[in-house]
Amino acid sequence: MLIPRQPVPGLTLETLDNGSFDLAADGAGFATLVVFYRGLHCPICATYLKELGRLTPDFAEKGVKTIAISSDGKERAQQMADKVAQPDLRFGYDLSLQVARDWGLFISTSRGTTSIGIEEPALFSEPGVFLVKADGTLYFSSVQTMPFVRPHFQEMVGALDFVQKNDYPARGEYTGAV
What we know:
With about 180 residues, this protein is α+β, with helices and mostly antiparallel strands. It has one domain (about 30-165): Glutaredoxin, CATH 3.40.30.10. It contains four helices and nine strands. The chain has helices at about 45-60, 75-85, 95-100, 155-165; strands at about 10-15, 20, 30-35, 65-70, 90-95, 105-110, 125, 130-135, 140-145. The chain has a seven-stranded mixed beta sheet with strand order 2-1-5-4-3-8-9, with helices on one face. The protein has a two-stranded antiparallel sheet with strand order 6-7. The longest helix has 19 residues, at about 45-60. It is globular. The model has no long low-confidence stretch (mean pLDDT about 95).
């Protein structure tokens, strides 16, 4: 389990239009919002990523860079990017399932063709949202076992004003005896 205020695992992969991505060298003023999505087969992911893309300029105003990542290969990632049609949103692809597991993501097995007629990969990661501060430590995370009920990006944008104004610390950092 990842712990707030502690370093996150390394994360490097290729992106569709922005070359290689290395979280440690991303250069965000405040943080990078890393959004792991299930893949092209997930219609809920497409809707979710459209919202992320729409709000990416708002995040940027607050010093937060965004990236959407899946274990899909380049071709499927490009199809998702085309479907989402948000040019400000970076798309990473070929996420290793071991790296997904290192980040605490749940892994699912294929159930065949989805409701939109796209075959699920044999194995893929379930969604996760991580706000990683510029120093590489975890500030916020939400990990899902299902495609449903995810954090709202609009709420995150609003919360950043409070967080930054009040230097609000990451919470959930305690690992001692209870």
